[in-house]
Amino acid sequence: MTTGTLALIILIAILAQASVAALIALKRHRRQFRKLDGSSSESSAHSAAPASTPPTSSTEAWAGFREFSVRRREFEDSGRSVCSFYLEPCDGEPLSSFKPGQFLTFRLAVRNLAKAETNTLVRCYSLSDAPRSDYYRVSIKRVPAPSDHPDLPPGVSSGFFHDHVHEGDRLMVKAPSGHFHLVEDEPLPIVLIAGGIGITPMLSILNTVLERGIEREIWLYYGVRNGREHVMKEHLQTLAGRHNNFHLHVCYSAPDESDIEGTDYDHPGRVDVPLLRNTLRLARYQFYVCGPKPMIESLVPGLEEWGVGSEDIHYESFGPATLVKREKPARTASATPISVTFSLSGKTLSWDPSADSLLEFAEANAIEVESGCRAGSCGTCQTALTAGEVDYSQQPDADIEPGHCLLCIATPRCDLVLEA
Ligand SMILES: Cc1cc2nc3c(=O)[nH]c(=O)nc-3n(C[C@H](O)[C@H](O)[C@H](O)COP(=O)(O)OP(=O)(O)OC[C@H]3O[C@@H](n4cnc5c(N)ncnc54)[C@H](O)[C@@H]3O)c2cc1C
Ligand code: FES
Question: Which of 174, 358, 373 to mutate to test the pocket of ligand 2 (most atoms within 8 A of CB)?
């Protein structure tokens, strides 16, 4: 071998080594960049982040229903009427993040033993914990028959969860959604007002604010009947003892003999505006209210009368899923009758002004329309509106596609043509 050939071989070896080193460096650099960017599959799908941390990236919401399994279930009150379910996705892919206050929509196949048939139900349940990387949590109250109608069947979905959903069972779940959620980039102090099971979205907001060390002052006014219904009592008391910026006010409207004021609860009675005025100093706050309809109907106007701007009041009521027939005041028929055409059923009907919604009107006329929450949240009753316009009895929570409407909270403004 000549000296020239030897020099050439050495040069080729050096160049090859340099190229390998450069390639390795480039790969490392790319990996680091992807980590910062949050787009690496290593940083999301197989994140090494410990459990109970927020999702590493705001993963896109999935479309339609996704299968989840129940990792754990546990009762949250001494009366065992509220049970939490911890859910993890069966596909092992990352969870979508959510805004504290939002809810999940479930599709349940519930067996009706009496009729030997399986019914599909759609129901919404608020997320009751801060966003985590490894699970979602919902907390569900068992709904009994109304006290004035004990003969009616108890709540179907809540009963199904309590009696038939166990660890390891699988559930079909839609991605988190809803317009009732914490406005995070707002510096104002926060006042949470919860009645009964309306505590669930508040827990999500509260846990998020305190865990993230957000330095906003936060109050929770929580009304229940007595100690048996007091959800997550120990958790709330621990948070109040640990965080100077968290102020807890618990109200019992019908305390048991064993419930002690000052120990178990702070105020007898319900959460009302006079209580807020007596315990909050004069300042601007962001109010979040969630509870039964009568509570919303009295508190929200009460806050406005007190001088709170409507932009500072956020509220949500867990509307009835099952059609609750009430005695309705006779409404005066409009001068010109409104016609509603259900084009797929081939029926044109005169609108009945005593009907609460187009969904109720359709059902009363044997027109089949799918429904779920009956509260404008789940989107199941969304129907194409070919002609005409509707009014909503409350702000729709579900996102409505253009040219569609939510029948469960809509009434006709003029003649309508619906694709149903
Ligand atoms: C956005 C949103 C978030 C929610 N978050 C939560 C949450 O975090 N936790 C929670 O527990 N709930 C929550 N809910 C309420 C939940 O979705 C259900 O409405 C609730 O669990 C009741 O459903 P169900 O199927 O058990 O009761 P249903 O079967 O719908 O029955 C409801 C009531 O109607 C009565 N009833 C039955 N038949 C009739 C009849 N023929 N006429 C009149 N009444 C009748 C039942 O006895 C019962 O009292 C939320 C609702 C919404 C819209
Ligand atoms: S039934 Fe859920 S939005 Fe109408």
Answer: 373
